[in-house]
């Protein structure tokens, strides 16, 4: 595919593109099944954990990768394991448990994989006779409720979520699995992302696809902030607007979306889903993942939707093919939308995260890493006031000190090129993913700092703080240690944007230890850690549930 010209300017770009990492440590212990720890256990604290931190760091991710003699194929397939680090008065306790999803219960009851996941197709039950096994091939794959991606919040309640139509309400204190919630009972969608956005008043926005006889639609969903009764879940949710895909039979895959004060920004990227392959996957004995592919011939297109009216902008913003899993932030300023995202120039990485790849060692592991594209933080500047009188062939980005470009090329079409939100030092740390900000105060607003994991390995192996004003990077890195997504917790009387702490669950291969790390978000120095006496697998996303 054609490479964005901005990226070529970097002297290290071609080194990055043709990475030749050697001698990576084997990370098999990070992707092995573990036992749950349902009762709280004490941890050993060293250093000092500020006493003003009161609450639970909640984490989600796969924790069981086989049933009986059947194994899952993809990292995303493992059974959801919920983790809680309870912080009170400078002390920390830990507990974990498997989400009691229907998938987990069915699999456990038969000690085999009964429910298909993203990269694993459940084979016909051998207890059925041949004819029934044959007929079962013609059934649609049922959507899994294995909500292993994130903790999310709607109407003040915590849920665990994945990318199907199912979520589970969870008690953040006990981690007990409560209600199973089906999006289709409330709005006409077949799935929803695991990354909603929330306005200051608690109103939540999400996106989900719907599939009908005329093909797919992308839908923006709005969920009210309050309940009419204590047992409510998604009552009152509505589809704000629907966007027609460029190809209704091959819609784009998306893991998240962006939001400003007044707009939802949907990124239609060239990671495509072949609906015919997905619908017939069980018949063909293939996993859903086989229907997801990268098409570098296609542009990435940004769609702007007014959050208040549901009206979609007629102007479409195009850029070169790129893949996006997570946005950093987005905000409006001076008649522009600033859209900050972690972007890669290739969308094939998702196929590399097979469990067998993550468990490789030596040259085989190096090869997997060196063929996996890395994500880097980039900013696109989208002009809001494009109309028939807007000149073509002119850079519409008039913001000083911004190298991003936005050029109208035709009616209702603007072509954009990004500017980098980093210096060359980020190449050394393998790019940045799992981005986080001071969300409660700076989401949808101009901001200075964001945090994330560096990826010199297939999972995060450093914690990074990026200063957008100075383009400077602060790094926490210890060889053989693998930190999780950093979660920012503001201090009680915070004035400055970075006045608070970073919480991250760190897994160490050196001494096979696990600990909760607490960093001063301003200085990036370690304040304390709480060592956990059990193994924890590497997970995905988390949230801080304040009890102060």
TrEMBL record:
Binds 1 Fe(2+) ion per subunit. GO terms for biological process: carotene catabolic process; retinal metabolic process. One of its GO terms (cellular component) is mitochondrion. GO terms for molecular function: beta,beta-carotene-9',10'-cleaving oxygenase activity; beta-carotene 15,15'-dioxygenase activity; carotenoid dioxygenase activity; metal ion binding. It comes from the Eukaryota. Keywords: Dioxygenase, Iron, Lipid metabolism, Metal-binding, Mitochondrion, Oxidoreductase. Fe cation binds at residues 195, 255, 326, 541. It holds the Pfam family RPE65. It is found in: Mitochondrion. It is an enzyme of class 1 (oxidoreductase). The keyword Lipid metabolism applies. InterPro entries: Carotenoid_Oase (IPR004294). The keyword Mitochondrion applies. Its EC number is 1.13.11.71. It catalyses: lutein + O2 = (3R,6R)-hydroxy-alpha-ionone + (3R)-3-hydroxy-10'-apo-beta-carotenal; 13-cis-lycopene + O2 = 13-cis-10'-apo-lycopenal + (3E,5E)-6,10-dimethylundeca-3,5,9-trien-2-one; all-trans-10'-apo-beta-carotenal + O2 = beta-ionone + 4,9-dimethyldodeca-2,4,6,8,10-pentaenedial; all-trans-zeaxanthin + 2 O2 = 4,9-dimethyldodeca-2,4,6,8,10-pentaenedial + 2 (3R)-hydroxy-beta-ionone. Its cofactor is Fe(2+). Broad specificity mitochondrial dioxygenase that mediates the asymmetric oxidative cleavage of carotenoids. Cleaves carotenes (pure hydrocarbon carotenoids) such as all-trans-beta-carotene and lycopene as well as xanthophylls (oxygenated carotenoids) such as zeaxanthin, lutein and beta-cryptoxanthin at both the 9,10 and the 9',10' carbon-carbon double bond. Through its function in carotenoids metabolism regulates oxidative stress and the production of important signaling molecules. Belongs to the carotenoid oxygenase family. This is Carotenoid-cleaving dioxygenase, mitochondrial. The lineage of its organism: Eukaryota, Metazoa, Chordata, Craniata, Vertebrata.
């Amino acid at each position: 595919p054609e490479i964005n010209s901005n990226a070529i300017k970097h002297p290290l770009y071609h080194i990055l593109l043709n990475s030749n990492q050697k001698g990576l440590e084997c990370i098999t212990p990070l992707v092995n099944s573990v036992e749950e720890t349902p009762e709280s256990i004490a941890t050993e604290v060293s250093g000092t954990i500020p006493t003003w931190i009161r609450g639970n760091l909640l984490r989600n991710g796969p924790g069981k990768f086989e049933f009986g003699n059947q194994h899952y194929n993809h990292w995303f397939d493992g059974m959801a394991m919920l983790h809680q680090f309870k912080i009170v008065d400078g002390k920390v306790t830990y507990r974990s448990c498997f989400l009691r999803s229907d998938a987990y219960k069915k699999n456990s009851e038969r000690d085999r994989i009964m429910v298909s996941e993203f990269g694993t197709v459940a084979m016909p039950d051998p207890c059925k006779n041949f004819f029934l096994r044959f007929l079962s091939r013609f059934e649609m794959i049922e959507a899994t409720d294995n909500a292993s991606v994130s903790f999310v919040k709607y109407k003040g309640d915590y849920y665990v979520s994945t990318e199907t139509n199912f979520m589970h309400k969870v008690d953040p204190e006990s981690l007990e699995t409560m209600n199973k919630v089906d999006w289709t009972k409330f709005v006409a969608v077949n799935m929803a992302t695991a990354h909603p956005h929330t306005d200051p008043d608690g109103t939540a926005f999400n996106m989900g696809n719907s599939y009908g006889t005329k093909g797919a639609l992308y839908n923006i969903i709005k969920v009210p902030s309050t309940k009419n009764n204590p047992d409510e879940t998604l009552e009152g949710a509505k589809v704000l607007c629907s966007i027609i895909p460029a190809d209704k039979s091959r819609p784009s895959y998306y893991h998240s979306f962006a939001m400003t004060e007044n707009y939802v920004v949907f990124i239609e990227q060239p990671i495509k889903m072949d609906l015919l392959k997905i619908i017939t996957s069980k018949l063909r004995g293939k996993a859903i993942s086989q229907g997801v592919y990268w098409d570098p011939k296609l542009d990435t297109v940004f769609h702007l939707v007014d959050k208040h009216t549901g009206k979609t902008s007629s102007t479409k913003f195009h850029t070169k093919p790129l893949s996006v899993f997570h946005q950093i932030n987005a905000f409006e300023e001076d008649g522009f939308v600033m859209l900050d995202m972690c972007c890669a120039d290739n969308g094939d990485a998702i196929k590399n995260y097979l469990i067998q790849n993550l468990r490789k060692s030596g040259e085989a592991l190096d090869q997997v890493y060196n063929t996996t594209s890395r994500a880097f933080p980039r900013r696109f500047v989208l002009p809001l006031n494009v109309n028939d009188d807007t000149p073509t062939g002119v850079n519409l980005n008039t913001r000083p000190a911004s190298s991003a470009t936005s050029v109208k090329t035709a009616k209702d079409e603007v072509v954009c090129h990004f500017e980098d939100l980093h210096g060359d030092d980020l190449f050394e740390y393998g790019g940045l993913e799992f981005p986080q900000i001071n969300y409660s105060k700076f989401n949808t607003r101009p901001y200075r700092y964001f945090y994330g994991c560096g990826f010199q390995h297939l999972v995060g192996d450093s914690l990074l703080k990026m200063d957008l004003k100075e383009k400077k990077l602060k790094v926490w890195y210890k060889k053989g240690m693998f930190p999780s997504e950093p979660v920012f917790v503001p201090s009680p009387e915070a004035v400055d944007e970075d006045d608070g702490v970073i919480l991250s669950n760190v897994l160490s291969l050196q001494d096979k230890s696990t600990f909760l790390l607490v960093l001063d978000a301003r200085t990036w120095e370690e304040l304390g850690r709480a060592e956990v006496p059990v193994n924890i697998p590497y997970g995905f996303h988390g949230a801080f549930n304040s009890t102060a």
